[in-house]
Amino acid sequence: xxxxxxxxxxxxxxxxxxxxxxxxxxxxxxxxxxxxxxxxxxxxxxxxxxxxxxxxxxxxxxxxxxxxxxxxxxxxxxxxxxxxxxxxxxxxxxxxxxxxxxxxxxxxxxxxxxxxxxxxxxxxxxxxxxxxxxxxxxxxxxxxxxxxxxxxxxxxxxxxxxxxxxxxxxxxxxxxxxxxxxxx
Length: 184
Hints:
Oligomer: single chain
Radius of gyration: 18 Å
Largest sheet: 5 strands, antiparallel
Strand order of the largest sheet: 3-5-2-1-6
Number of helices: 6
Number of domains: 1
Order of helices and strands: EEHHHEEHHEEHE
Number of strands: 7
């Protein structure tokens, strides 16, 4: 089992906006998702090369406000600094909400050819806008990577309301076992 909470592919939308296509990993629940600017910032950092001696503009900006290792896991960091980096995070959609987690897990555990297609993981899409297009330099668009990012600052005042989240969930596709009792 992996400790990654999500697997992510980042795709450009415009010079300052990207889509994060996220698949739920094995470290959380089968239907977990994240939607805050704190999550987006952590994902962007995880999707960039290690800063080492050649930090990206985002790395440099974060280090300028908090030192060599910005504490992206602390909500106080985001509460104080997120507006400097991320303008917005919008939950666009959720796909494949797993309605019967037991049956889904049983099918995944059986493995075999095509099991990932028959028992797909839950996924979601976030659209995120940065304050400076240079903060996206270093991203390898379309290259999947694992992340342990999470909503470090859940109470971000720009986070979607519960009604907005419910509306997106209502439009989401669902995974169910076949009606004949077969798992897939």
